[in-house]
Design a protein that fits this description.
69% helix, 14 helices, globular, single chain, mainly alpha, 348 residues
Length: 348
């Protein structure tokens, strides 16, 4: 009789326990996006001390589908009323992304003395999963790339909600619909969007596919649904736990040795992103807080989860991180030593 492979069960069980405890602790303290932050910090701590953490690929996809569909639901006609002012914001995004990339690369290459390939992928502002796969294929020093990327992501995840104006959490605007039938049809549409994105080889298909389908359905009036806030908050905590699990296999000695250049790079990139985000947010009429989240050099999924949890213009934040994701994936093969295929991934 064939044995069922349950090697994923212990890491998942431990991750759920750590994430639940961390999310509960920071939620009780009423921190913005406390569930996401608490889950990330608790799971990261467990990963660093050698505990098995992680989640099956299907569960990760489910979390990203929930977040993507929730972001798409915020794309109502009224929410997109200021879209005519966004072209300027996207222009600022392109310039600031290239400037952040150059600043981070300069720190790793010149100040830290890392080789060109490792510095190139360590400085990439976003597209984390794709960057890790491409870096490994190009022969970069993966311990350096992983440490730099994860430390920057963790720092931004911790800092972003604390920089936002505190206030009561509230769900994105939208009208709730009664009955199970609309939700069942919406769930089928979301799954179809995911599979469509996979077939079309979109990056982050479990996030972008449901987001596109949900946005189209809400813009056309086909659906008018708002995900229950406990569902969004739970999915946000799940995303935080996935970020924390990325510290698995990273040793404390590596963190200490690579911390100075990673911190310097983060500081340089953060200053550029914060200045550009503040300017773009004000110019676009969405406010500086949304601009800071939209331009922060971190993971698309995590920062959009923070935007959802704090109701900070998630449609605007999602649009800009999607644009930067595509920009980074377009320029990485051009900057690398040889052309590299863009991998299809369900998470940044």
């Amino acid at each position: 009789m064939r044995r069922i492979d349950l090697h994923w069960l212990q890491p998942l069980a431990e991750t759920v326990v750590y994430a639940a405890l961390g999310a509960w602790a920071l939620t009780v303290l009423h921190l913005p996006a406390g569930g996401l932050l608490g889950a990330m910090l608790a799971v990261a701590a467990a990963s660093l001390v050698g505990r098995p953490t992680g989640a099956p690929h299907l569960l990760q996809s489910l979390l990203f589908m929930v977040m993507g569909s929730a972001v798409g639901a915020a794309a109502t006609p009224s929410a997109l009323g200021s879209i005519l002012r966004w072209p300027l914001s996207f222009a600022i995004l392109i310039v600031s992304t290239l400037a952040m990339y150059a600043a981070g690369y300069g720190v790793f290459r010149r100040a830290a003395g890392w080789d060109r390939t490792t510095a190139l992928y360590a400085a990439a502002p976003g597209a984390l999963s794709a960057v890790m796969v491409m870096a490994q294929g190009e022969g970069a020093v993966m311990s350096k790339v992983a440490t730099a990327q994860v430390l920057r992501l963790a720092a931004i995840t911790c800092a972003s909600p604390l920089l936002l104006a505190s206030g009561p959490m509230r769900p994105p605007a939208g009208a709730a619909a009664g009955g199970l039938q609309p939700w069942a049809l919406f769930a089928l549409a979301v799954v179809a969007g995911w599979r469509m994105a996979v077939r079309l080889k979109w990056p982050s298909p479990a996030f972008l596919g449901p987001m596109a389908v949900s946005a189209a359905a809400h813009l056309t009036g086909l659906f008018a649904l708002t995900a229950p806030q406990p569902v969004v908050m739970t999915a946000s905590a799940g995303v935080g736990a996935l970020v924390g699990a990325r510290f698995s296999g990273v040793h404390l000695k590596e963190l200490v040795r690579f911390f100075p250049p990673a911190a310097l790079s983060f500081s340089a990139m953060g200053v550029i992103g914060a200045a550009a985000g503040w300017l773009a947010g004000v110019a676009s009429g969405v406010g500086p807080a949304a601009g800071l989240l939209a331009f922060a050099p971190g993971s698309m999924d995590v920062l959009i989860a923070i935007a959802l949890a704090t109701a900070t213009s998630p449609a605007y934040v999602a649009a800009h991180h999607t644009a930067r994701l595509l920009l980074v994936l377009a320029i990485l093969p051009l900057l690398g030593r040889r052309p590299a295929a863009v991998p299809v991934s369900d998470a940044e």
